[in-house]
Design brief:
The structure holds 2 protein chains of 2 kinds. By secondary structure, chain A is an alpha/beta fold. Chain A contains 17 helices and 11 strands. Chain A folds into 2 domains: 2-118, DNAb Helicase, Chain A; 143-424, P-loop containing nucleotide triphosphate hydrolases (Rossmann fold, 3-Layer(aba) Sandwich). Helix content of chain A is 46%, strand content 14%. In chain A, the strands form 2 sheets. A 9-stranded mixed β-sheet of chain A has the order 5-4-6-7-3-8-9-10-11, with helices on both faces. Chain A has a two-stranded antiparallel sheet with strand order 1-2. Chain A starts with a helix and ends in a 6-residue tail after the last helix. Helix content of chain B is 44%, strand content 12%. Chain B is built from 9 helices and 5 strands, in the order αααβαβααβαβααβ. Chain B has helices at residues 24-33, 54-65, 67-72, 88-103, 118-126, 134-142, 158-173, 187-194, 196-204; strands spanning 76-80, 113-117, 145-149, 177-182, 206-210. In chain B, α2 runs parallel beside α4 (88-103), α7 (158-173) packs parallel to α9 (196-204) and α8 packs across α9 (196-204). Chain B is globular. The relative contact order of chain B is 0.18. The chains are: A alpha/beta, B alpha/beta. Chains A and B meet through β10, β11 and α17 of A and α1, α4 and α6 of B.
């Protein structure tokens, strides 16, 4: 079937380069249903320097039905190579087995001699930093001109000052903390803010239903009391809420919530890929990495290996789809025992896996205490780490008020603040 | 719309901001709530010196005015006086309150100062059925300013000595300030109660201010 896809693509686009650039020769079509068709196209190309048009081709092969091809060249090339390898490999295996029945040594010897022609052949792509330097320059110019096309604001401007926002691709951001520290709230605040910027977002919620996520959204977006919404209090101004819901429905960007049920109780990276593609999502939030299933997993793999694989696959997905993926991770109990009021849990306390922080592009730890929230940038590729930002947090109305941060203050600012304080409150202190 | 007013705030009389939008009060309160000070001691009180304490009060007032620099330089203060209730603890608390006034903003999540009654602390350190949590012990070591109230109220055991010595010595080595209060005014007497080495640390590394006036509580 892939042979037909390739033929259709070549004849539709008139471009032969997919075969030339990837060294796909007539050998790849030998013994397949489309051997003659390919031979005709190749000979025409070699003789006239162009791919035959569809009319010329159909005169020769009136029975053929073209198919629509949306797959990438890379997929088509990898698939035809894999199928070609299989066609070569299967007879070798059969012959080796036949020989081995009589003499195992002869079977293995035959196998070894045939193996040299059976090398796997993947297509490898790369960027030549030298020859393709212009591309880099263009990207830089685009970044300068259109910052918003490259980064989302996280909804926490003070955090953005440190991490320069959330990159729109190649971004696996990990948010981690111990239990009950506000991880899910921060995740939803960030994804809501991306939605507010006019983008389609997805939220995978393994623990909470769509209504709970929805009420939090209402709180974060418009400040409706979360307690009133969740508890069904009559204190909420119903007219106002109804009006808001009507207005909300006019919004074009989507905020899609999916629970494990939507994934058939098994959330995998492949299913997340489909989820993103189906709804054309431009950012994805996952409220708990441990709810994902490792597709590469082998029977004896431990949790650490699985989570390392999953985080690696999520990063690959982010690169492939060009969207940021924000994931919540739990810190282990070690962080609790050694807890200090002014310290966030360290990277080493990420539960079950070092691989998660290794694969992440950004890691933010959280600590909440007495209506206040501290975020610490534990990892980022292009900036300082161990920078903390602090907020007063009114959880009920979803408000985060930044409090000044002496770590990012200059000496002069600090001195000025000190003098201001000394002048103030003289009647009391 | 009328501005909301928080009458519990330290700045209630000098600030016109809307308290609903205030970020200073929560930060100040956070420091006080995590300091170990009883709630009744959150608000500073005025202290009037008796005639023979004028100089001591002036000296303490000067330290208090620049308490942030005093702490930054890792200095220590020993406020002593034989007569109970003559303002030693009140002065130590005033120092802590003023320090919070200077540094609370921007430092939430970092316990900047603590108040500890030494007899109470030593008792808690021996209560193995209800041990002090790690966070509290860590803060005792690492906060910028620690008030050790009534350091030599009674003779101490070997175990108490070890606990107290480790705390005091560790903080001094790390350049962290301590303000001691005590009824003991002579080093000899202090040595008898808390031991020679600890007394030497306390006396030798502190500015000593003696309050001589009578009981102000009555």
């Amino acid at each position: 079937m892939v042979e037909l896809q390739i033929l259709s693509k070549i004849l539709t686009t008139g471009n032969y380069s997919i075969l030339e650039d990837n060294y796909i020769t007539s050998e790849y079509f030998e013994g397949t249903e489309f051997e003659n068709e390919f031979q005709f196209v190749r000979e025409h190309y070699e003789k006239y320097g162009n791919v035959p048009d569809k009319a010329t081709f159909l005169r020769q092969f009136p029975e053929i039905e073209f198919v629509e091809v949306t797959e990438s060249d890379r997929y088509l090339v990898d698939t035809i190579r894999e199928e070609f390898l299989f066609r070569k490999y299967a007879p070798v295996l059969q012959q080796a087995a036949k020989l081995a029945k009589k003499d195992a040594n002869a079977g293995v010897e035959y196998m070894l001699s045939a193996m040299k022609d059976l090398q796997p052949n993947y297509s490898l792509t790369g960027i030549d930093l030298i020859a393709d330097a212009t591309q880099r320059l263009e990207h830089y110019k685009e970044r300068v001109e259109h910052q918003d096309d490259w980064y989302f604001s996280s909804g926490f401007p003070e955090l953005d000052n440190v991490i320069h926002g959330i990159q729109r691709g190649e971004e696996l951001m990990i948010i981690y903390a111990r239990t009950n520290q506000g991880k899910s709230w921060v995740l939803e605040k960030m994804i809501t803010h991306i939605w507010k910027q006019g983008f389609n977002v997805g939220y995978v919620s393994p623990e909470m239903g769509a209504d709970s996520i929805g009420y939090r959204f209402d709180t974060l977006y418009k400040g409706f009391s979360n307690k009133d919404l969740m508890w069904g209090n009559k204190d909420l101004a119903l007219d106002e809420y109804e009006k808001y819901i009507e207005e909300l429905k006019q919004q074009k960007s989507k905020f899609i919530v999916a629970t494990p049920l939507d994934f058939g109780n098994k959330i995998t990276v492949s299913k997340l890929r489909n989820f993103v593609k189906q709804y054309k999502l431009e950012a994805l939030a996952i409220d708990g990495i441990t709810y994902l299933t490792d597709e590469r997993g082998r029977r004896n793999d431990n949790k650490t290996t699985s989570l390392t694989n999953i985080s690696e696959d999520l990063m690959t997905l982010s690169v492939e789809l060009g969207i940021p993926i924000l994931v919540v991770v739990q810190a282990n109990r070690g962080g609790v025992v050694d807890g200090e009021s002014d310290k966030n849990p360290g990277l080493e306390t990420i539960r079950d896996s070092d691989g998660i922080s290794h694969n992440a592009s950004k890691v933010i730890s959280l600590r909440q205490k007495d209506d206040s929230l501290m975020m610490c940038v534990e990892k980022q590729r292009n900036g300082k780490v161990n920078i903390r930002v602090k907020y007063l947090w009114n959880i009920n109305i979803g408000e985060f008020i930044p409090v000044s941060n002496d770590e990012t203050e200059t000496k002069e600012e600090k001195a000025e603040r000190r003098e201001r304080k000394k002048a103030k409150g003289k009647d009391v202190f | 719309m009328e501005k909301s007013k928080n009458t519990d705030c330290w700045y209630a009389n000098s600030c016109d901001e809307d308290c609903d939008k205030c970020v200073v009060y929560p930060q100040m309160k956070w420091q006080f709530d995590n300091s170990g000070l009883p709630k009744s001691k959150y608000m500073p009180i005025k202290l009037q010196p008796q005639p023979n304490d004028k100089r001591a009060f002036d000296k303490l007032a000067a330290i208090r005015k620049d308490i942030d620099e005093f702490v930054e330089q890792g200095k220590n203060l020993y406020i002593c006086g034989k007569i109970p209730g003559n303002g030693k603890t009140s002065w130590a608390i005033k120092m802590l309150q003023t320090y919070f006034h200077y540094v609370a903003e921007g430092n939430m999540f970092e316990v900047k100062g603590m108040f500890v009654s030494v007899p109470d602390l030593l008792l808690k350190m021996k209560d193995f059925s209800n041990p002090l949590n790690n966070e509290y012990k860590e803060n005792l070591k690492s906060c910028d300013l620690l008030i050790l109230d009534d350091i030599a109220v009674t003779n101490i055991s070997q175990y108490d000595y070890l606990q107290l010595f480790t705390l005091v010595d560790g903080r001094m080595l790390a350049g962290k300030s301590i303000i001691f209060t005590s009824n003991v005014t002579e080093i000899k007497q202090l040595e008898e109660i808390i031991g020679e080495r600890l007394a030497s640390r306390v006396f030798g590394n502190s500015i000593i201010v003696e309050i001589k006036g009578g009981d102000m509580r009555g």
